[in-house]
C-alpha cells in the first residue's frame, strides 16, 4: 500500500498553509522537503494510506 | 499612458513553498537568453539567434533568523535548487496577475550584513536553473 506523508506547518506560511495546518507531500510536490524540515518550517506527523481509487 | 499601474508593495515571493513576501524589500526578475552569433560572410550586420535561457532573480531581504523566514529557509536549501514563485500581487493567478516560476540555485547568501544601528539585510542574485515559466491560470 502506498503511503502518503503528512506534515504540520510549524511557522510562517508554507505551501499556502499557516502554522498548525497540515500539508501532504502532494502539496509539496515541487518543494525540497528535507530543507523544509531542516529549517523548522514543517515536521512530519503521520503516514496515511493513499486512497486507491482503482480498488473502489 | 499606461492604462493600469501596479504598486510593487504587493509582490508575492515564495521560495521552496515558503512565503517570504513580508521579508522582501525589492524583487526583480531579469529574463534573458544567450545570444549566439551567426554572422557569416556576406552579412552586413552582426546576426544573432536565441540560445539557452539564462535568467536571474534578484531579491533584497530583511534578514530574519526564525523558522520559515529568510535565514532558515535559504540556509537549509544552500547548495540546492529550489522553486521560486513570484506574482505581482498576492491575488489568485490570472491573466492580469501572472505567476513567474523558476528553479533557482541557492549558491550565495549573506547571512550577516550590516553595521551598528543598521537593519540586517541581504541582496542576492539567484541564477535560474530553468526557464521562467509564466502561468495565467
Describe this structure in words.
The complex is a heterodimer of chains A (56) and B (137). Chain A is mainly beta. In chain A, 11% of the residues lie in helices and 39% in strands. In chain A, the strands form 2 sheets. Chain A has a 3-stranded antiparallel β-sheet with strand order 4-1-5. A two-stranded antiparallel sheet of chain A has the order 2-3. In chain A, β2 and β3 form a beta hairpin. In chain A, 23% of the residues are buried. The model of chain A has no long low-confidence stretch (mean pLDDT 85). Chain B contains 1 helix and 10 strands; from the N terminus they run ββββββαββββ. With 137 residues, chain B is mainly β. Chain B has a single domain, classed as Elongation Factor Tu (Ef-tu), domain 3, CATH 2.40.30. In chain B, 22% of the residues are buried. In chain B, strands 1, 2, 3, 6, 7, 8, 9 and 10 form an 8-stranded antiparallel β-sheet that branches. In chain B, a hairpin with a 2-residue loop joins β1 and β2. The interface between A and B is medium-sized, with 19 and 16 residues.
For the structure shown, list the relevant keywords:
heterodimer, A: 56 residues, mainly beta, B: 137 residues, Elongation Factor Tu (Ef-tu), domain 3, two-stranded antiparallel ribbon
Q: Which regions of chain B contain 5 or more consecutive residues with pLDDT less than 50?
A: none
Strand content of chain B: 35-45%
Hey, roughly how much beta strand do the residues of chain A contain?
A: 35-45%
Largest sheet of chain A: 3 strands, antiparallel
Broad structural category of chain A: mainly beta
Radius of gyration of chain A using CA atoms only: 12 Å
- The ordered H/E elements of chain A are EEEEHE
User: How many strands, which pairing sense, and closed or not: the largest β-sheet of chain B?
Assistant: 8 strands, antiparallel
How many strands in all of chain A? 5
Amino acid at each position: 500500500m502506498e503511503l502518503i506523508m503528512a506534515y504540520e506547518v510549524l511557522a510562517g506560511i508554507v505551501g499556502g498553509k499557516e502554522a498548525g495546518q497540515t500539508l501532504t507531500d502532494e502539496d509539496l510536490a515541487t518543494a525540497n522537503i528535507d530543507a523544509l524540515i531542516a529549517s523548522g518550517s514543517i515536521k512530519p506527523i503521520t503516514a496515511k494510506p493513499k486512497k486507491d481509487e482503482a480498488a473502489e | 499612458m499606461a492604462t493600469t499601474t501596479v504598486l510593487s508593495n504587493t509582490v508575492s515571493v515564495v521560495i521552496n513553498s515558503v512565503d517570504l513576501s513580508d521579508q522582501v524589500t525589492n524583487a526583480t526578475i531579469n529574463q534573458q537568453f544567450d545570444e549566439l552569433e551567426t554572422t557569416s560572410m556576406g552579412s552586413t550586420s552582426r546576426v544573432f539567434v536565441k540560445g539557452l535561457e539564462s535568467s536571474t532573480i534578484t531579491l533584497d531581504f530583511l534578514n530574519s533568523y526564525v523558522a520559515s523566514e529568510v535565514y532558515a529557509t535559504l540556509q537549509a536549501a544552500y547548495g540546492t535548487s529550489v522553486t521560486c514563485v513570484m506574482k505581482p500581487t498576492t491575488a489568485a493567478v490570472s491573466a492580469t496577475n501572472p505567476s513567474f516560476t523558476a528553479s533557482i540555485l541557492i549558491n550565495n547568501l549573506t547571512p550577516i550584513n550590516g553595521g551598528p544601528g543598521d537593519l540586517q539585510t541581504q541582496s542576492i542574485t539567484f541564477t535560474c536553473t530553468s526557464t521562467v515559466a509564466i502561468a495565467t491560470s
